[in-house]
Amino acid sequence: MSLFEDTYRAIDEPSEGIFRDKGSKFIAYAFPFKDENKIKEIIAELKALHPKARHHCWAYRLTPDRTIFRVNDDGEPSGTAGRPILNVLLSMDVTNVMVVVVRYFGGTLLGVPGLINAYKTATQEALSNAEIVEKTVNDVYEVQFDYLQMNDIMKMVKELDLIVLGQEFDTNCKITLEIRKLRVNEVIGRLDKIEGVKINYLRTI
Fold this sequence. Notes:
The protein is of the alpha+beta class. The protein has five helices and eleven strands; from the N terminus they run E-E-E-H-E-E-H-E-H-E-E-H-E-E-H-E. The chain has two domains: 7-134, Impact, N-terminal domain (Ribosomal Protein S5, domain 2, 2-Layer Sandwich), CATH 3.30.230; 137-204, Alpha-Beta Plaits, CATH 3.30.70.240.
């Protein structure tokens, strides 16, 4: 991702695709995905749904800058399942997506080229059935301020049409804002002009 690119492609809803070859059936499930801790939960649900399937192979790609990814062949020959799934994610340039392909063995070996094609095609089917959306790369900031500054802060939030993720109003107030990366300098510049405001960067989403 270049310094000035602040959008990425993802999916908002799960989707499915199916590919059949020589009696084997490959069912691909694509999920919006942001939390690596959810892998076991997703795989467990699909294993419960398909208890007789031979393999549950997967790949995912994470973060707006697309730098985090993992693949798993789940017993298929190395490089024939997880990597072809990931390659589709790369070629379609989507991120924050996990694809699991469930395989029912049909009794005939497909060979390495056949497996690669099957996992790739099932994944392509699932993603072609998904609505791919463009999202902006946003930074999350926590802004702390005195109660007396609340009007100034809230006026600015409204003027700049900022997304408020959370707020606490007491003697000391706190608001969590989601700001599009391209607008961070503009927003921080405005906040800096309000006396006594503390700004903390939390994360990029």
